[in-house]
Amino acid sequence: MKKGNSSEKIVLITGASSGIGKSIANYLSRHHFKVYGTSRSPQKSAGELFTFLQLDVTREDTIKLAVEDIIAREGRLDILINNAGVGITGPLEETPEEEIKKAFETNYYGPLRMIKNVLPYMRDRKSGLIINVTSIAGYMGLPYRGIYSATKGALEITAEAYRMEIAQFGITMTNVAPGDFATNIASGRYHAPVLPTSPYKKVYGETLDLMNEHVSAGQDPELMAKAILKIIKDPEPKVHYRVGEMLQKVSIMLKALLPDKLYEKILMKHYKL
Description:
The strands form two sheets. The chain has a seven-stranded parallel beta sheet, with helices on both faces. A two-stranded parallel sheet has the order 5-8. The protein contains nine helices and nine strands. The mean pLDDT is about 90. The protein has one domain (about 10-270): Rossmann fold. The protein is α/β, with parallel strands linked by helices.
């Protein structure tokens, strides 16, 4: 078993082939971390500073092999960043159950599989940091994004419990909820088809256009990378972090402060429902 540079933190980040994950992986590499990024079909391109590994968070066998590979090379794993995720939109009534299950497999069960596979190694060293990339959408039920909100909200709540259970082992867990960032998530997400006979056809189509506009006008993913580095350097990370436009972060506080129906009315006005 090879022993890595003791001063160099070993990082594993899932979903590193594009968007936020790729930005975090390259940014941490530039700041002297040894980074392993994963993808279902890794294809290293020019300018990438990290090592790619093949991993599919929906497949336990690929997770086990990737984690064992890192341990064999480095002797340890200091930080896990659960970033891999999929988007899903559509009227709840018309979203196929199979697609709902797929979203949960990646966004919820995927991170849980990753955590389960790295914990024994972190527990042996009595140290480790696990960062779950969730979403501001996970704090509220958003129209035509209800399943996505549910997957991210479930991970937020589960991680709160997990954090308390693993504290005794010297391992820290935290959640980072991004708002809209300029990534390719819109092109990669599952869209329930806009059926010609659907009673939701007009409003869903308009809401989908609005969602895509928000992503296109989103912030630079490097903002998330900088936030992740700041969390890593914090000796006592908080339970939750939110990163993104101020209005999006304020929306979480408003939900806690305002009466339910008033908050719902604000959301419906925003989405022109």
